[in-house]
Structure prediction request, 352 residues.
Amino acid sequence: MTAETATTATDRTPAESTANPLVAATAAGHHRILTGDRPTGPLHLGHYFGTLRNRVELQSRGLELMIVIPDYQAITDRDRADRPAEHAEELVLDYLAAGVDPERATIFTHSAVPALNQLLLPFLSLVSVAELSRNPTVKDEIAHSRQSTVSGLMFTYPVHQAADILFCKADLVPVGQDQLPHLEVTRTIARRFNDRYTTLFPEPQALLSRAPLLLGTDGGKMSKSRGNAVTLGATADETARLLRGAVTDPDRHITYDPEHRPGVSNLLLLTALCQDRDPHAVAAEIGNGGAALLKRTATEAVNEHFRPLRARRAELAADRTVLREVLHAGNARANAVADRTLTEVRAAMGTF
Ligand code: ATP
Ligand code: MG
Prediction:
């Protein structure tokens, strides 16, 4: 991908980003990326264009890549996580197929790193209940929760996410738009810890892509848990079936207008991302062809773009021991980092 396909978000707004942010981010001295995906299902096109492609690109530019598989966060919105270890392996499969280099990346499961989780306690003391209550992403996740009540774990979601990011002192976080409010909490926690005790943590910056919120087939955010996703590993036929069912509108003249025509524009953007083009140009080409032609165009673009990734994924799936080894090695590395940070935190707080 080209460096121009991403935007950076700071404590101001993503719209104020620089024109060539990946290069700018690297040049600005960022050195460690942390990002992750809940082990609630396989990765989808939203992950790929939202963050995964940027992770691979930044790793290839020499930044250190940490990927958390936050298995405890899989029980924020459901009573039990469904086969979290199996899903974690599937995520590793998706990462490797997408081009993440496991030799240089640290891919780890959150529950296997005790010192990381211990950071939650001091961090909880740095935010107010009022701040947690007004987090819009927590509200949205509660609205889609499978539980009738809100657990303490759901309520404190942004705080454990802060622990995930700060334990390794990551300074750049490639995320989708839904994660921006969470990242603000992380930045607040870092700032307050540094002010109250001693300067230990960077205030990490978000990195948004050109597709910070890819929509699913039902018109809502494409999500692993909402039954509206096209997965990276889907077959060409599954992709065609799913995209045929995508929500559009009755106007046969296809135009790119994300605000008024979200479904149509989403398919145009998806096509444009796959073909490295401008969505307006894709729309002009389809003209009065209607939603059916748009869907066929998007399907061909997705299937063409993901053919090599899907082939690599199928090859890698043949040997699951490799996937487990990647996680074991990643957990060992993450534990060493977390132990060091916890020692520093305890010294800063003056605990015994
Ligand atoms: P779940 O439904 O289980 O919450 P999810 O699809 O929302 O799954 P997450 O594991 O919660 O995926 O998110 C992992 C990362 O991918 C986050 O940085 C998130 O912002 C990003 N992401 C998720 N969905 C999209 C999307 N539709 N468009 C762009 N980025 C996305
Ligand atoms: Mg999510």
In short: The pocket of magnesium ion (ligand 2) is lined by residues 223 (CB under 6 Å).
